[in-house]
Amino acid sequence: MRRQVKSGAVKRELLQGESTKLLQELHLLTREGNLNADSLRKLKQVNHLVQLLQPAVEDVLERFGDPVVVDCGAGKGYLGFIFYELFLAKAEKGRILAIEGREELVRAARERADRLGFSRMELVHSRLEEAMLPPRLHLVTALHACDTATDDALFLAIRGNADHVAVVPCCQAEVAAQLKERKAAEPPISSLFSHPWHRREFGSHLTNVLRALTLEAHGYSVTVTELTGWEHSLKNELIVGRKVRGSNPAARKELDSLLAATGVQPKLHRLLAG
Ligand SMILES: C[S@@+](CC[C@H](N)C(=O)[O-])C[C@H]1O[C@@H](n2cnc3c(N)ncnc32)[C@H](O)[C@@H]1O
């Protein structure tokens, strides 16, 4: 992994339509115009994700007059800003709502959006659980939304009947803790997670398997791939869903039996049940 990209070579890291001016505004570039190792990693992740999102964006821009994109757990808003510059600015329509729970990040991002004239980018200070959103969403994203915040994002997508959803989960720990209670699982299933290390790994894997199955049960066609090379991020699983039908009873049955066999109740499942 390269440590730094010198200013003269930064252009090679940019996508078509992506400006060094924006990267400067996002403080991804140093004062000298270089990309340091952390910024390079972040840029690689965001650029990969926006590239993968391109067909989904084109789809919603083509089909809807004013598509609503929601970025959950937006942090400093890197994804939203880059997304806006690449897609929404050019399209002259559509808006992005970037939801973030930390007020200081929201304030800074709002000021940045004003400076850039990104008038259809709204920075929403809210917990995802309490966010007031339009009833119908078109594309929902969550890049490294911590632990169950990814469940909140998926819930918002399913509830908002989003046409497309893309999440890159982060440090999913809830299910591992539930496995420890071993409420339902019997051997040999329980042998998959009797050691703490296995419980953490299996819990993390099971969480994302259940998330993918839940999307399928709600009528999404789902693909699970890696976002970038492992050298750019260890939190690298990308779950992408495209709404293709109302529901999928076969996936629902599979989901219910996996929940029963493992005895877990992830937040996404609780939110949808409630
Ligand atoms: C690891 S950061 C990722 C930020 C950004 N998506 C990125 O990739 O640069 C996760 C962000 O989600 C926010 N977050 C976590 N849980 C949240 C919740 N329930 N509601 C709103 N924001 C939340 C955190 O404050 C943090 O800024």
UniProtKB/TrEMBL annotation:
CDD domains according to UniProt: AdoMet_MTases
Tagged with keyword Methyltransferase: yes
Record GO biological process: methylation
Database matches in InterPro entries: Methyltranfer_dom, SAM-dependent_MTases_sf
Keywords, sorted A to Z: Methyltransferase, Transferase
Domain Methyltransferase: 41-178
Pfam families, per the entry: Methyltransf_32
Superkingdom classification of source: Bacteria
GO terms under cellular component: cytoplasm
GO function terms (MF aspect): methyltransferase activity
Name of the protein this chain belongs to: SAM-dependent methyltransferase
